[in-house]
C-alpha cells in the first residue's frame, strides 16, 4: 500500500499544475477580452500615445522620443486633444452652451463631442456619416445643440444638410453597439448651393436684432464671390449678396444677426445689413457700409460680442478694430479705433477668433497659434507648433466650460494633422 501514496500525490500535483496553467491562461484571456469590450470603440485614450514608438522611428532612442512627446504636449495652455479623426479636420463649431463640439473631417464623418469636462481622458461622441457625395467641410449649430447644419462638397459643388435630433452622445457602454444608436435625421438639404463652387465658411447666429424673431440664421460663403443667408430650421434661402472682390476669404454674421461682413481678395471690407420685417422674418439683405483702410487683402475678420465692432487681419501686416455702430444711412463712415502690427515674422494671420468676453483675440498662421490682448494688441502667449500641420479652423466656446472643478474659457483648434485641440485662455495679466 505504501508505494501507491507517493504516486497518487504526484499525479494530483501534476494535475494541479496543468489546471493552474490552463485556467490561468484562460482567465488572462478572458480579462483582456473584457477590457477591450468595456472600452467604447472610438473613444480616444491618451495613455496609448507614448506606446507607439513606430511613429517616431526617426527620432532618437525610445526614452528620448517619449520625452519629446511630453514636451510637445505641454504648452501650458494645452488642455486636451480630441483624437479619433481619420483625416484632416476642416471645420468645427461649439453649441451655444459650449458643451458640444461638432467637427467636420475629411474622413467623411461629422463628430459631435460632449465636453462635460474639457480635461477628461476621453470624450463621448456622436458619429454622423454623411450621405455619399463629398466630405464635410464646415459645420454650424443652429437654434440649439440639437440642430446642426453641415456643408459638404465635391467637384460638382457644395451641399448643405441640416440634421435634427443631434442628441447627447450615448453613455460609454451603449455607444459600443454602434448599430443600435439611432442616427440624427436630415431635416432639409440643398445641393450645388454655390453652383459648382465650394464653401469656405459657414457661420450662424440667433437673429435677435430689432424685430427679428429669434430664428437661427446661417451664412455660407463660397470660394467665389457670393454669400447666401439661410434659415436654419427650414433651409429657406433668405438672401444672397456678391462681394464683387475677385475671391472671398470668409464671411461672418454679427452675434445679434444684424450684419454680414466679408473678408475678400481686395482690401475693402464690405458689410451688409440683414433687414427684418415687422413679423420678424428677413425682408432683405442690403448693402450697408465699407471698411476702408487696409492696403491689402483681408484674410479674416470677426465681430465683437456686442456686434458694434469688427476686428480685421490683413496681408498688409496689420490688425484693425473698427467701430461700425455709426449712422451709415446718413453717410457716416465706420471709424478705425485701433491699428496693431501683426507680431509675427510672417506678418499676417490666416484665422481669427475672439473670446466671448471680447478681451482675447486668438489668431493663427500655419501651425502657429497666438493670443493677443484686444485692448493693447500685446501678445499674451504663443504656441509655435500648436499642431503638426496647418490649422484649418479655430473657435472659442461661447461660454466657460468645466475643466476639473473650475469653469474656463476654452479655444478649440482643428488641423490637417487630424487633431482637434482644446486650449485654456491665457491670463490677461501675462507680461
Ligand atoms: C457630388 O455630390 C452630389 C450631392 O451630394 C452628388 O449627387 C454627386 O453625385 C456627387 N458628384 C461626384 C462627382 O461625386
Ligand atoms: C450600461 O448599460 C446598462 C444596461 O444597458 C445600464 O443599466 C447602465 O446604467 C449603463 N452604464 C452606464 C455607465 O451608463
UniProtKB/TrEMBL annotation:
Positions with biased composition (Basic residues): 54-63
Species assigned in the record: Rubus argutus
Classification lineage: Eukaryota, Viridiplantae, Streptophyta, Embryophyta, Tracheophyta
Keyword Aminoacyl-tRNA synthetase in annotation: no
Record field: transmembrane: 6-27
Keyword Repeat among UniProt keywords: yes
Cleavable signal peptide: none
Positions of WD repeats: 82-123, 291-325
Protein name listed in UniProt: Transducin beta-like protein 2
Region described as Disordered: spans on this chain: 32-83
InterPro entries: WD40/YVTN_repeat-like_dom_sf (IPR015943), WD40_repeat_CS (IPR019775), WD40_repeat_dom_sf (IPR036322), WD40_rpt (IPR001680)
Keyword annotations: Membrane, Repeat, Transmembrane, Transmembrane helix, WD repeat
Any matching Pfam family: WD40
Amino acid at each position: 500500500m505504501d508505494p501507491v501514496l507517493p504516486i497518487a500525490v504526484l499525479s494530483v500535483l501534476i494535475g494541479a499544475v496543468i489546471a493552474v496553467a490552463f485556467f490561468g491562461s484562460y482567465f488572462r484571456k478572458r480579462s483582456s477580452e473584457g477590457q477591450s469590450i468595456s472600452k467604447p470603440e472610438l473613444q480616444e485614450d491618451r495613455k496609448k500615445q507614448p506606446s507607439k514608438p513606430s511613429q517616431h522611428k526617426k527620432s532618437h532612442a525610445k526614452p528620448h522620443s517619449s520625452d519629446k512627446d511630453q514636451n510637445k504636449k505641454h504648452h501650458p495652455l494645452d488642455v486636451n486633444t480630441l483624437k479619433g479623426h481619420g483625416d484632416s479636420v476642416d471645420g468645427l463649431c461649439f453649441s451655444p452652451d459650449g458643451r458640444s463640439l461638432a467637427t467636420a473631417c475629411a474622413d467623411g464623418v461629422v463628430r459631435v463631442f460632449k465636453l462635460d469636462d474639457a480635461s477628461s481622458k476621453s470624450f463621448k461622441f456622436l458619429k454622423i456619416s454623411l450621405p455619399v457625395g463629398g466630405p464635410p467641410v464646415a459645420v454650424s449649430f443652429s437654434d440649439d445643440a440639437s440642430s446642426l447644419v453641415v456643408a459638404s462638397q465635391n467637384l460638382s459643388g457644395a451641399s448643405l444638410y441640416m440634421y435634427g435630433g443631434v442628441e447627447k452622445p450615448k453613455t460609454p457602454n451603449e455607444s459600443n453597439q454602434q448599430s443600435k444608436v439611432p442616427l440624427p435625421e436630415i431635416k432639409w438639404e440643398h445641393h450645388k448651393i454655390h453652383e459648382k463652387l465650394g464653401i469656405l465658411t459657414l457661420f450662424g447666429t440667433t437673429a435677435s436684432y430689432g424685430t427679428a424673431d429669434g430664428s437661427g440664421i446661417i451664412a455660407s460663403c463660397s470660394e467665389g464671390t457670393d454669400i447666401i443667408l439661410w434659415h436654419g430650421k427650414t433651409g429657406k434661402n433668405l438672401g444672397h449678396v456678391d462681394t464683387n472682390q475677385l475671391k472671398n476669404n470668409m464671411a461672418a454674421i454679427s452675434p445679434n444677426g444684424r450684419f454680414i461682413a466679408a473678408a475678400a481678395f481686395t482690401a475693402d471690407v464690405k458689410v451688409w445689413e440683414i433687414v427684418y420685417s415687422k413679423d420678424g422674418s428677413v425682408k432683405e439683405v442690403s448693402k450697408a457700409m465699407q471698411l476702408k483702410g487696409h492696403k491689402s487683402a483681408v484674410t479674416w475678420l470677426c465681430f465683437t460680442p456686442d456686434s458694434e465692432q469688427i476686428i480685421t487681419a490683413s496681408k498688409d501686416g496689420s490688425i484693425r478694430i473698427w467701430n461700425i455702430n455709426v449712422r451709415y444711412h446718413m453717410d457716416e463712415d465706420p471709424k478705425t479705433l485701433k491699428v496693431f502690427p501683426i507680431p509675427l515674422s510672417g506678418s499676417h494671420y490666416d484665422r481669427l477668433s475672439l473670446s466671448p468676453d471680447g478681451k482675447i483675440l486668438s489668431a493663427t498662421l500655419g501651425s502657429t497659434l497666438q493670443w493677443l490682448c484686444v485692448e493693447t494688441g500685446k501678445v499674451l502667449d504663443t504656441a509655435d507648433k500648436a499642431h503638426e500641420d496647418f490649422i484649418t479652423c479655430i473657435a472659442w466656446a461661447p461660454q466657460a466650460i468645466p475643466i476639473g472643478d473650475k469653469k474656463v474659457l476654452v479655444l478649440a483648434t482643428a488641423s490637417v494633422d487630424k487633431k482637434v485641440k482644446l486650449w485654456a485662455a491665457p491670463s490677461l495679466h501675462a507680461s
